Each structure stands twice: as structure tokens, then as C-alpha cells.
Amino acid sequence: MRADAKLMKELNKRQLRRVLRQCGEATKPELADRTGLSVVTINSLLEDFLKTGEAVQSGMAPSGGGRPSALYQYRPDYRYAVLLYGHQSEGRNLMHLAVVNLTGECVWRKEEYFDEIRVESFESVLDDVIGRFPETGLLAFGLPGEVVNDVVTIHDYEALIGPDFMAHYKERYHLPVIFENDINAMTYGACRDDEMERATVAGIYLPRIYPPGAGLVIQGKIYYGTSHCAGELAGLPVPVSWDSLDYGSAEEVLENLKLLTAVYGFTTAPETLIYYGDFFTEELQEQLRTYSERLLEGKFHMNLVFEENLEHDYEEGMKRLALEALWEEME
């Protein structure tokens, strides 16, 4: 096959993949109509997809009296993304593993505590899950740090800082590997409906034993800042240093959170500011809402949301980021 013909076939395959994803299932004439390709071309491409298992015949379309047409759909389990994301739980490192298919359905999950986090710490659990799912097409990490050009530049787990972490897992599994900061993933995961995707949403995670971090999503895109340093709040001058803050002291906590609310209210003006933490009493929530309204003086309304359970937004964000990257790899 000539190079230009091979390229054209790959472009046509990309188009057919997109249409199959969008429509769920369709007949060959419907696929031809939606892609703009001929039925002959659709026949040839589907033959390849059926051989590789990328698509399957899913049934027969209702007939209006003539011969019924076969229906085809993209196979959700053709590829998987493996998610490994972690956070603090009762002062310990809790890691979640999840396997999702191409529609975002979680088909396997596991939780495990880790006493130490080093470059090689995740080998055993990942060997197991990737062995169970050989169709894995991408590995996604969600951890409290930042990666720039495959180098871990900032991390609460200092042993991961440097170029070794990303290189180690890419070489070990021969897979694309992505990395996302924990609060970025949570904030991204919170933007699930159309209205939130068009909005500016800020998230702040307070894990107690580490300084807080912040994420910012603007119209559906994570804002990283220079060298991915946006949201690194450890250096922000606060009334009580994060190292010595007593989370049992409502007065100390309130003073620090007033500052964070003011900073994010006036610098990013988000429609929604989400606080993730396990210490937000009803009284503290009401005090912060009252402070926010008084601070902004009616210039705009900033909806304050308090989430004790961060795992739902975290997994949703990691899942969306992983699938976006996986589909891009496949195309």
C-alpha cells in the first residue's frame, strides 16, 4: 500500500472511531452517512475493526419490510485505562486503583494503604492489575505533586522528585503514562455538567498533615501556571503557619481560610469555590459563607461548597483525563 493511501486509511479509521463513539451503534449506511465515507470504504474499515476486536456486531436494526441491516458498535473493552490515585486518610497514604473501559465504566477496583512512597512502591499492585487486564492502553497517576516534561518537580512524597518516577513506569509497562496533581483532578472531576464546564471553578484541598493545594478549572481547562506552580499554597503568608495549625481550633482554621477565600475570590473570581477537608463543621461553613458575602459586597456571587468525601470528584477527574489521553493515543 502506498504511503498516501495508508495515511488516508488511518484518517478514515479515526473518523469512523469518532462516529462509532458518538452514536453508540449504527448500520453501515448510517455510518457512511455520518462519516461522509462510501459504504464500500465503511465495509473495508469495519472488516479490520471486527478482526482486531475494536468493533463488534451488536444486533440487527428493525426492518421496515426489507432485509434487516446489521448494527455495529465500538467495543468498550477494547482498551482500558488503569488509574492509581492517592490521598491522606486518617494520617495514612491511601491509594485507589481503578480500571475503566472506553466508556468510563469502572470494571475493577482496589484500595491499599502504603507506609512509604518510593519510585518502586507501586510495582506490585500494578503488575497484578495490568496482568489481569492485558488490554490496558494507558496508566494514569493522581498524586500530590507536579510533573513538567516527565520530571516530577514538586511532590509531598520527596522520594518521587526527579526524572526517575515517570521513566520507571513507562519502561516497565511500555505504556503511555500521565500524571495529574490531586487537587487539579478533583476540581476537574467536579466540573461534570455543561454549566460547570463553562464556568470558572476553584478547588482547595486541606489534607491536614501537608500544606493545602489549589486547583483552577477555567471553561473546562485546568490552569497550570508557569512550571505548573499555580495553586502551590505552601508559600502563601497566612496568620498561622500550616505546619503548626491546630485543625481542632476553629479560630485558627477560620483565620487561615478567610485569607484563602479572599485570595481566590478576588484573583480568580470563580463561580464556585470547593473546599475539600474533613473538619468543616456547619458553624465553620456558615462563617465562611457570611465572610465571603461581606467580602465581595455583591460584586458577584461565589458559591462555596464543602466536600468531606473527595474520592468521587477525584476519581471522576482522573477517569476523564485518562480517557481523553487514551483516545488521543488511539487516534
Molecular structure report:
With 331 residues, this protein is an alpha/beta fold. It is built from ten helices and 15 strands. The chain has helices at residues 3-23, 28-35, 39-52, 123-132, 164-173, 182-190, 194-197, 250-267, 282-296, 311-330; strands at residues 25-26, 55-60, 70-74, 80-89, 92-101, 106-114, 136-143, 145-148, 151-155, 177-181, 200-205, 213-218, 221-222, 272-276, 303-307. Strands 6-5-4-7-10 form a five-stranded mixed β-sheet, sandwiched between helices. The chain has a five-stranded mixed β-sheet with strand order 13-12-11-14-15, sandwiched between helices. Helix 9 links the parallel strand 14 (272-276) and strand 15. The radius of gyration is 24 Å and the shape is globular.
Sum this structure up briefly.
With 331 residues, this protein is of the alpha/beta class. The protein has helices at residues 3-23, 28-35, 39-52, 123-132, 164-173, 182-190, 194-197, 250-267, 282-296, 311-330, and strands at residues 25-26, 55-60, 70-74, 80-89, 92-101, 106-114, 136-143, 145-148, 151-155, 177-181, 200-205, 213-218, 221-222, 272-276, 303-307. It has a five-stranded mixed β-sheet, sandwiched between helices. The protein has a five-stranded mixed β-sheet with strand order 13-12-11-14-15, sandwiched between helices.
